[in-house]
Every structure is written in structure tokens, then in C-alpha cells.
Design a protein that fits this description.
The complex is a heterodimer of chains A (about 90) and B (about 210).
Chain A: E1 3-7, H1 13-21, E2 25-30, E3 33-38, E4 42-46, H2 47-50, H3 54-57, E5 63-65, E6 68-72, E7 76-80
Antiparallel strand pairs in A: 1-3, 1-5, 2-3, 4-7, 6-7
Chain B: E1 13-17, H1 21-31, E2 36-42, E3 53-59, E4 65-71, H2 96-101, E5 103-107, H3 111-122, E6 130-133, E7 137-143, E8 149-155, H4 161-178, H5 185-213
Parallel strand pairs in B: 1-4, 5-8
Antiparallel strand pairs in B: 2-3, 3-4, 6-7, 7-8
Helix pairs in contact in B: 4-5
Classes of the chains: A alpha+beta (about 90), B alpha/beta (about 210).
Chain lengths: ~90, ~210
């Protein structure tokens, strides 16, 4: 399953809150990391909903599982399955 | 790593050359108010006909020091208009981010202290060029009279134990990826996810007794 890991630190609370409320995403915990998995082979997050500062936003990803970063700009993070044909 | 293995005690001194000692003293002693704590006046000697020099030191707190060498009669080499500093001028095409990657960051304890240094710099010939909130620190930056980038920084919060684990996993992944073909951040993060799955749960379990006893 396409997933990203986020470390459990105060700066990442906004990202985790948004992920938790998103019906297309599933959260589980491995040690001090949260794994955010996409139920649709995709994880899409909007920085504006998370309230993260840019420096936090750009350094929030701790790991990628079956994932390719399709977009990571100032507001959008979109990761897709590394096996998906539109992965670029 | 045990306490016995890690015996060092911070920065004794970090040394840099200067061609403008008067401006260097203005910047560090008069503007930043770093005390002059040591100096050596030395005649040059030896097979390389070392020039006479002055080696002088400023206290940067915690008994750590920044030091400068001024060599009498020695002139800078390279294009003075090129990006770089008194130590070296960089080749044409060197990007700014790369030039600025080498810098000295000096710690302060509070926002009040950071803003005090901002005030001192802004009233000087070397005003703050940038004030940035990073992930867990806030910093101000300027370049000293020699072109060296100086950062003053404060922590926004203490570092947590899980950040030490995260750093260890990053570095293990980095060493693997950087010695392989076509290193990239995506490759590093993919390898790091494997290390998280392998090690993070056990790390957390090992933390529990300490948490309970503290």
C-alpha cells in the first residue's frame, strides 16, 4: 500500500490531524512514526489545511513505502504508488 | 555511544583568515560585543617563509571561540568580485546556496536574545539579511566583513529522543544511498521506510523503562 511515514513531533501535528480526518487515508503507528497510507494508491495532502510552516512542510516526510513523490510544492504533497503507470 | 567514547567538549576555536582586521574587530567586538579573549603576535618562520601574523580570538559564549589570522603583506588571490569570502573565491557558476552552505551558527537561548543580536546587527554596516523559522529553530543571518556567513539561532523547543532515532535512520539510509547509483531524496526515503519498519518499534519498546522510571 502506498504510504508515507511522519515522525511524531509537535510540528507534524497538523499533517497528522488532516490525515486522520481524511476518509481516503489510514493511519497506523510504528514506534514513534505514523504511517499514512492511501486507500487509493495515492496520498494527497494540502499544506493550507495542516497549518504547517513551509520549512516543516518540506521536511515532514520521514519515509516512503511503495511511493513516488508526484508533487511536493508549497501547498500540495501528492504521492502515488511507485507501480502506477502515471508515476513520473 | 557511551559517555566514555564521547569525550569532546564543544568548539575550542574555529579559525578563519582575514584581510581586514579592523572591520573584523568592529563586527565581532564592537557590534556583536563578543569579548576579545586572546591574541598571538608571531614572526613568520620556517621553510615556506611564512608571513608574520596576528592570530586573534573572540569569545562566542560557552568558552568557545572564533579566531582569525591576519598575515602581514599577504594579498588575496582570485577575483574579488566573485562569489566567496576571504578564504577563497569560488569558480564562476557556483550557486549561492552552495556558497552559503559553509557557515558558522552561534547559539542563543531565547527569542529576546536573538532579537537583541538582530538589533545590534541592524544598527551596523552588516544588517540582518534574513530571519527564518526553520523546522525547530529560528535563525538570523548576515555576512561578516570577510564574507563569512554567520547565523545566530535559537531552538523553538528541546530536541526529542525520537529525533535522535530519526537522525540515525536518516544517516544509515544516506550512507547507503549516497554510495549507490544516482542518489536521490526519494531513494533515501524509500530505504529509510524499510529501516523504520525494521527498527522503530524495538527502539520505542527500549525507551519504555526509562520513561517509567523518570
Amino acid at each position: 500500500m502506498t504510504a508515507l511515514f511522519v515522525l511524531d513531533v509537535p510540528e507534524n501535528e497538523g499533517v497528522l490531524r488532516v490525515a486522520e480526518q481524511d476518509p481516503l487515508l489510514v493511519l497506523d503507528k510504528i514506534g514513534p512514526y505514523y504511517r499514512i497510507s492511501g486507500t487509493t494508491d495515492e496520498v494527497l495532502l494540502d499544506r493550507r489545511a495542516t497549518g504547517s510552516r513551509h520549512a516543516v512542510w518540506y521536511s515532514a516526510i520521514a519515509g516512503l513505502q511503495d511511493a513516488h513523490i508526484a508533487q511536493h510544492d508549497k501547498d500540495v504533497l501528492r504521492i502515488v504508488s511507485s507501480h502506477r503507470c502515471d508515476a513520473e | 555511544m557511551t559517555q566514555n567514547e564521547h569525550r569532546v567538549k564543544g568548539v575550542d576555536h574555529a579559525a578563519f583568515p582575514t584581510f581586514d582586521p579592523a572591520a573584523t574587530v568592529r563586527f565581532y567586538r564592537d557590534v556583536l560585543k563578543f569579548p576579545v579573549v586572546h591574541s598571538i603576535c608571531a614572526a613568520g618562520w620556517g621553510p615556506e617563509q611564512h608571513p608574520d601574523f596576528i592570530h586573534f580570538f573572540f569569545d562566542i559564549g560557552n568558552d568557545d571561540r572564533i579566531a582569525f589570522f591576519y598575515y602581514f603583506g599577504h594579498q588575496p588571490v582570485g577575483d574579488p568580485q566573485a562569489r566567496g569570502d576571504a578564504w577563497a573565491r569560488l569558480p564562476e557558476g557556483t550557486p549561492e546556496f552552495f556558497a552559503n552552505s559553509r557557515h558558522l551558527a552561534i547559539h542563543v537561548d531565547s527569542e529576546q536574545d536573538l532579537l537583541e543580536y538582530r538589533r545590534r546587527l541592524d544598527e551596523s554596516a552588516w544588517p540582518v539579511e534574513m530571519q527564518v523559522m526553520h523546522e525547530t529553530i529560528e535563525s538570523i543571518y548576515t555576512h561578516d566583513p570577510n564574507g563569512y556567513m554567520i547565523e545566530l539561532t535559537r531552538a523553538l523547543r528541546p530536541v526529542t529522543p525520537q529525533e535522535d532515532l530519526d537522525a540515525a535512520l536518516t544517516i544509515d539510509a544516506l550512507c547507503e544511498v549516497a554510495t549507490g547509483a544516482d542518489p536521490s531524496l526519494e531513494k533515501l526515503l524509500t530505504r529509510k521506510a524499510e529501516l523504520i519498519v525494521e527498527r522503530a518499534a524495538a527502539w520505542e519498546a527500549a525507551q519504555q523503562p526509562e520513561t517509567v522510571s523518570s
